[in-house]
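Sequence design from tokenized structure. All designs in this work follow the same two-part layout: the structure record, then the generated sequence. An example of the structure record is given first.
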């Protein structure tokens, strides 16, 4: 194998240092690994060290896995698994140092650049430093540093890659002038350098996106997965009657209807100290008691149902995303058929890829983009899919922890993408991905009343894992 690699490298004029060679040979699939390294090396690379390879992959573990790799959990049989590398629980390494942030954004850039380069209408991006020297149409990838509007109404974007930064000019009459750009998203640009302006005149924009070819292939599964978001146990506005109605419906119908899985996309309890004067709205003031009460409620859910819980911004987890799973001190009273995972997470359920994310970043999307609203979270989720990122906007209300890899990147194309947070209920299909906003079990809060926001509570969405049919079960 070593000789094979050396001869392929030599044919490309590349020489690996001994430590680089050692790293390549220690990979499970050295040839695949080395080919991926080739495709990410700078064009003029000649002597490649281990560090160069590390820089190429910059926290981007997915470079070496194109299909979700599932990690069986010992509590479960293989019909529900967590996709390896998508749950930060037990993997968090960041200390919040400047270097961590640099590595985090490199990870984001390379992951999303790779998705853009996978598009069959894009090809390989040229580095920005090289594009600055070219007198022809080029394609580049970069992370948006900022956007502005010129005094004549044209759009100007500062785009940055790992080599340099460049201005991208979009004429106000151009068909791409109305596209939405948010800071810190990664885009591909086709255009030509205007030397006088020192800017690329953009002709086309490319997003990582969900491929239009993505299909929901029918399977013979007869199971359904249900979603119960934002239960908010402990709040005075918890909808006890509707919850009990839902539980008795599950007891009567879940087996016959094949509801074998329930996912809780965060805010399972109301928490403490989440907003000023929250104690006035709490029925259970102690956080441990809130989780103990939830454990009691969940005992009523029929035993054949496997449950998955991840935290949201009201839960007792760090607020910065990605959030690790709830600590055992809160969940020791939970039954063993409940799996605790981080937020966000990818699961494989009977062959379907299910991504669950609480949705705190919706706050930033709504604040940054005029036409996005809390009333229509599905539209926000669609924008996330287009950018293949759950929370691109950095430094606003939603805190992001600079982990080695960016867990908020949508590495894989999900079949189902669920979120909560805004207490709405709805579904939408985008390129055959089932987007679901999974309601709440809390009525309108004082805060929501003040902001004239009407939630859509006590609705349980289910998705048929065979046919992909989505149903909304209303317990009001
Ligand atoms: Fe919530």
């Amino acid at each position: 194998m070593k000789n094979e690699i050396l001869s392929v490298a030599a044919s490309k004029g590349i020489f690996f240092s001994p430590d680089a060679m050692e790293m390549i040979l220690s990979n499970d699939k050295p040839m695949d690994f080395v080919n991926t390294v080739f495709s990410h090396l700078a064009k003029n690379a000649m002597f490649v060290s281990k560090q160069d390879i590390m820089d190429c992959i910059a926290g981007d573990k997915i470079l070496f896995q194109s299909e979700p790799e599932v990690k069986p959990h010992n509590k479960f049989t293989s019909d529900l698994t967590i996709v390896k590398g998508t749950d930060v629980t037990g993997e968090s390494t960041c200390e919040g140092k400047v270097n961590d942030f640099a590595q985090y954004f490199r990870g984001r850039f390379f992951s999303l650049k790779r998705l853009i380069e996978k598009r069959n209408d894009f090809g390989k991006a040229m580095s920005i430093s090289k594009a600055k020297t070219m007198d022809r149409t080029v394609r580049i990838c970069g992370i948006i540093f900022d956007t502005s509007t010129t005094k004549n109404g044209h759009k100007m974007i500062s785009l940055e890659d790992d080599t340099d930064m460049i201005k991208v000019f979009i004429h106000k009459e151009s068909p791409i002038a109305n596209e939405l750009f948010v800071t810190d998203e990664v885009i591909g640009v086709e255009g030509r350098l205007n030397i006088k302006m020192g800017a690329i005149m953009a002709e086309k924009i490319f997003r990582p996106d969900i491929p239009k070819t993505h299909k929901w292939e029918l399977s013979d599964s007869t199971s359904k997965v249900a979603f119960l978001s934002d239960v908010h146990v402990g709040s005075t506005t918890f909808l006890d009657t509707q919850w009990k109605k839902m539980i008795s419906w599950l007891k009567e119908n879940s087996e016959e209807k094949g509801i074998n899985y329930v996912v809780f996309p965060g805010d399972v309890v109301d928490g403490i100290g989440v907003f000023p004067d929250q104690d006035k709205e709490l029925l259970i003031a102690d956080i441990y008691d809130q989780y103990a009460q939830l454990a009691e409620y969940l005992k009523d859910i029929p035993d054949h149902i496997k449950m998955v819980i991840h935290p949201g911004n009201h839960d007792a987890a760090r607020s910065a995303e990605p959030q690790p799973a709830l600590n055992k001190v809160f969940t020791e009273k939970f039954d063993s058929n409940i799996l605790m995972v981080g937020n966000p997470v990818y699961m494989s359920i009977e062959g379907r890829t299910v991504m669950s994310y609480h949705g705190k970043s919706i706050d930033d999307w709504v604040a940054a983009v005029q036409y996005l609203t809390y009333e229509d979270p599905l539209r926000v989720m669609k924008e996330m899919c287009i950018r293949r990122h759950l929370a691109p906007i950095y430094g606003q209300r939603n805190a992001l922890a600079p982990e080695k890899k960016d867990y908020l990147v949508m590495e894989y194309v999900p079949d189902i993408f669920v979120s909560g947070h805004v207490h709405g209920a709805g579904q939408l299909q985008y390129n055959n991905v089932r987007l679901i906003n999974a309601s709440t079990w809390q009525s309108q809060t004082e805060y929501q009343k003040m902001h004239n926001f009407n939630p859509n509570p006590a609705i349980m969405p289910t998705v048929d894992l065979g046919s992909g049919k989505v149903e909304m079960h209303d317990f009001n």
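Residues 230, 267, 312, 314, 421, 423 surround fe (ii) ion (CB under 6 Å). We note this feature because it recurs in several other targets discussed in the main text.
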